[in-house]
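Q: Hi! First time doing this. I have a protein sequence and I read that you can turn it into a structure. Is that right? Here it is:
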Amino acid sequence: MNHFTLKDLLEFPSRYRANLVNSSTGYKSSNLLATKGKNGVTNVAIFNSIIHIGSNPPMLGFILRPTTVARGTYKNLKETGFFTVNQVHKDMIADAHHTAAKYEEDISEFDKTGLESIYLDNFDPPYVKNSPIQIGCKYINEYKIDENDTILVIGAIEHLYLHQNIIHPDGWVQLDKAETVSCIGLDGYALPSLLDRFQYAKPDQKTESLLNKS
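A: Yes, that's right. Below is the predicted 3D structure, encoded as structure tokens:
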């Protein structure tokens, strides 16, 4: 097994180091964040840092890289206070990945890819059409991470759209049925398959499968 010390990691070329460290932390979610600025121009960008913050009240978060360069998503959500999170379906990975390209502020990534915008229930920013799970969020807070100048943005979930056939009776969502992809590092995409699901873990009790329960 290869062993890299901190000294080794810091001496690697930046792109090699980014690939190595980013991939080694495991599979990540793959989502498209969509916003619309006050000028009416939409923005859609891929993020692999969406995290669950809480369910009561429902909240999520994501990491924003340093704002030393223009960040259209951040600018728009700060102007309007709203954004959408759209899980990437397996059939849209090339277009989703292309949203990472650095276009000028007055150009919408919807116009440069095969992704389509859709507006639902009078929510101001668009959702990504054909995304199997769509979440409408309101910006509520942010926290500066001083160690690397990134920002943790917190959003309150105000709308959630997903097909009934992927929701189990207890509310659990079976993502492999939705065919949403996960991300490996910065540029790899994978389609996970469900191995098992287990009951709530309790001390000194055998862990039982929920899928094989008769």
